[in-house]
Backbone:
């Protein structure tokens, strides 16, 4: 046994770590929901290796008296499920970390003396329940017991999670969880552990979703009735979510033989009048670039969700990065307009994905939704999703005898018809064409068509989403972020405790909003935070505004920024500049 531990913090970070196959994600999925049902604010995210068995994976679950939605470096309670876990996350273990582990894992005397360690017979409990596979349920019981979650809630959560299995499997998981729960209560009663986190009854009625589910919900709200994709992590979860709900929402879900087939089938769906989406990741999207050019030429609406991961090539396929902004921005040869959205909050993902379909339909351009593995796999509770004001706005016109699909217009937007709706002929061809859609090599028509397509960029400015300013308007320091960095930047700024710092977060990264220059001009110091190696968005801001951001904080090792490291890096920059 180790030292007694008293936890007075209002925010506890729990980490479970072990090899693939230990069921760590099962623990995360059960615990986040049952803790939320018990009135606790929760946040969970994971990092995992690209393998089915072995390696070292970890899940962080934050339990708090207030809303939490960012990754911490700090570990308050650690449950290592194999010896390799201690090495894998050793740099995050402090003398304050309480390690709850099997004695066989903390076998050497040095570790036992070094760690704040309480021995729990995980393997014996799991074996008694039916085998090592039930270790994850022991962990569920222990954590639930530490937070005084009623075992009736634990039992119903486990029964619901394993409802598709045999009744005996449910009973064995319940047995393992029950013993873990009892041990946790014994530790509390013996005053070995004291946790002081207040509950909020309002939280029990809130929802808890991850980024993939938020994108899927937004797609349904946007009228998506066709999802066509080839699986590729971390985007596959969106395909899975929409496939699972396809029947309820009259949605066609198709897994194609490859990414090229997927994007071309989606273009065909739009041509026929459907609202289609493709979900993919960087390597898969690279195969779709020719079809993106096709969308530009035939002026087809298109919604493409790209869940970023580190490249080049296969890179780190299960890790996170913001490295595909330039890929998406410059994809498809030639010049044609596009829109790029990048949610930072779960609510943003729902709203922006919904908007993506209306924007694609209105402007007849590809609209991209940029997320990443961290955003896809992170859960936290939110009050609700207000979908009452979402509208599916369609811009399809009934065609007449004199219909011209690519009629020259001042705003660049031609009337969009679909085959069979009206008397007109709806043509589409990948070659340059005249107003009716017939192939042409008339050079004057070519110039007119390029100008027409590009003139949509001016029209698109009517619907630009302004960046969100978090903090006081009289800031001296402006920290700039986009996409999934929102919550970690916001919390890091809170930790600094300064009143002269504000966050400017972009949820639309292209076209860059014209107000951006005004925000930058007011700041004495500017800092951009990005999950890539070259500061891609910082350079895009420079191209759009002429402002070169003073400082860049970049991370590209495959892991999201933690609150602590970002706080320290911002502080270092400010100390050097003052």
Residues:
């Amino acid at each position: 046994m180790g030292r007694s531990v008293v936890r007075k913090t209002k925010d506890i970070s729990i980490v479970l770590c072990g090899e693939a196959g230990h069921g760590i994600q099962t623990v995360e999925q059960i615990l986040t929901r049952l803790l939320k049902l018990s009135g606790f604010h929760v946040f969970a995210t994971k990092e995992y290796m690209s393998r089915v068995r072995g390696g070292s994976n970890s899940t962080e679950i934050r339990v708090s008296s207030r809303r939490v939605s960012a990754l911490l470096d700090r570990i308050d309670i650690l449950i290592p499920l194999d010896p390799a876990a201690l090495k894998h996350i050793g740099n995050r273990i402090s003398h304050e970390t309480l390690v709850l582990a099997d004695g066989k894992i903390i076998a050497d005397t040095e570790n036992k003396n070094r760690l704040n360690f309480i021995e729990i017979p995980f393997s014996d409990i799991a074996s008694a329940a039916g085998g090592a596979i039930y270790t994850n349920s022991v962990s569920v019981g222990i954590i639930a017991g530490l937070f005084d979650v009623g075992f009736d809630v634990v039992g119903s959560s486990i029964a619901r999670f394993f409802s598709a299995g045999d009744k005996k499997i449910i009973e064995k998981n319940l047995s393992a969880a029950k013993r873990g729960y009892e041990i946790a209560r014994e530790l509390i009663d013996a005053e070995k552990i004291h946790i002081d986190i207040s509950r909020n009854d309002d939280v029990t009625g809130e929802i808890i979703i991850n980024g993939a589910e938020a994108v899927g919900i937004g797609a349904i709200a946007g009228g998506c009735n066709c999802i066509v994709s080839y699986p590729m992590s971390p985007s596959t979860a969106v395909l899975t979510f929409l496939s699972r709900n396809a029947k309820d929402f009259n949605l066609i879900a198709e897994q194609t033989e490859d990414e090229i087939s997927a994007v071309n089938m989606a273009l065909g769906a739009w041509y026929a009048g459907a609202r289609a989406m493709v979900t993919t990741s960087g390597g898969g999207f690279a195969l779709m670039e020719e079809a993106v050019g096709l969308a530009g030429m035939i002026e087809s609406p298109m919604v493409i969700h790209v869940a970023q991961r580190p490249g080049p090539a296969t890179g780190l396929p299960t890790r996170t990065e913001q490295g595909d902004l330039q890929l998406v921005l410059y994809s498809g040869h030639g010049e044609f307009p596009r829109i790029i959205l990048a949610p930072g909050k779960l609510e943003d993902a729902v709203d922006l994905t919904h908007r993506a379909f209306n924007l694609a339909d209105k402007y007849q351009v590809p609209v991209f939704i940029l997320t990443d593995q961290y955003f896809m796999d992170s859960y936290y509770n939110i009050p609700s999703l207000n979908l009452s004001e979402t509208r599916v706005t369609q811009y399809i016109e009934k065609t007449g005898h004199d219909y011209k699909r690519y009629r020259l217009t001042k705003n660049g937007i031609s009337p969009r018809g679909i085959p069979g709706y009206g008397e007109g002929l709806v043509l589409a061809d990948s070659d340059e064409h005249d107003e009716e859609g017939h192939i042409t090599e008339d050079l004057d028509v070519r110039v007119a068509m390029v100008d027409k397509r590009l003139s949509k960029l001016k029209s698109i400015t009517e619907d630009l989403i302004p960046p969100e300013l978090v903090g006081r308007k009289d800031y001296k320091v402006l920290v700039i972020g986009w996409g999934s960095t929102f919550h970690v930047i916001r919390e890091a700024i809170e930790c600094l405790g300064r009143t002269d710092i504000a966050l400017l977060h972009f949820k639309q990264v292209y076209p860059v909003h014209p107000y951006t220059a005004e925000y930058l001009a007011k700041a004495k110091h500017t800092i951009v935070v990005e999950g890539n190696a070259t500061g891609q968005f910082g350079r895009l801001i420079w191209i759009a505004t002429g402002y070169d951001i003073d400082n860049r904080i970049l991370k590209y090792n495959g892991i999201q920024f933690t609150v602590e490291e970002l706080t320290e890096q911002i502080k270092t920059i400010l100390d050097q500049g003052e």
Remarks:
- The chain has a mean pLDDT of 94.
- Residues 244 and 253 are 9 Å apart (CA to CA).
- Residues 167-189 form the longest helix (23 residues).
